[in-house]
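Minutes, structural biology subgroup

Action item carried over from last meeting: produce the structure token record for NAD(P)-dependent oxidoreductase (Sphingomonas pokkalii). EB confirmed the sequence was re-checked against the source entry. Recorded below for completeness.
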Amino acid sequence: MLDEKANLNGKVAALLGGGGGIGAAATLGLARMGVDIAVFDKDGAALAETKAAVEALGRRCLAFEGDVLSSDNVRDFYAETGAAFDRLDIVVNVAGGVRQRDFLTGTDEQDAEDIRRNFGYVIQSIRLAVPLIERRTTGGSIINFTTIEAYRGAATFSVYAGAKAANANLRRALAVEFARRNIRVNEITPDTTPSNGNANALLPELTAVMMETPPEVIEKAMAMYIPRGTAATPDDLADTVVFLASDLSRSITGVNINVDGGTSAASGFIDWPGGGYCPAPLGDSIKLLFPGH
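Output recorded by EB:
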């Protein structure tokens, strides 16, 4: 019954950044629902692996190796998608990324790259996708990925956070502008989901400390930070993509869905050891965190 109501079988999805990690989970989640795939990614090895997995599910797959930093790559991807398929129903803009840095040490070139990789390509992707979606009259679903950093003061990720935040108003504005076209525009916001992108974003010294920290300690730290106690998985995000792509959400447009185990709802309330939920450590929490003081 749910498959019938979802009405995804036989549709076509374009996923930018869909070759590995979270993007691959979204790609395969849609393929399992009977969706044919056009996938764009800069990681050729991951792209080939995901293409093989899609085809093993009995779905067609166009794989395009490219970087969203290149407007020509994005344009060529949509040209090939339009030639390979007679329809386009779903667009998922997953690609993004950043390297942690102080704002004042950044260069104009780094800023431009952060803005293009996290916002600029999304504009181009949507503008190229809509004419392909409108080759049929059934409408479509556009799903953009952002990050929790778009909704809080993310020090040392400032330009990245600003670029991601721009997606929020783009999503709202296009949801209204495209409503009469029957094209929905929504957004998914993860937080602590494990991915290569998240690991690569940190300063090298922080990455080194994380690598040396026992997994059980990291799990305890995450349990403090995440109200549900565990991080959302790539498959959790993929399930949300499937929902927003399907007719199960046919009246939902212009919204953001946080897939984060409750961290956005907590807004800084942390389950401190010895102190319980509070924005800052108090009482016994201070003694545990700073022994001897």
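Discussion: The chain is about 45% helix and 15% strand.
Next step: EB to file the record with the rest of the batch.
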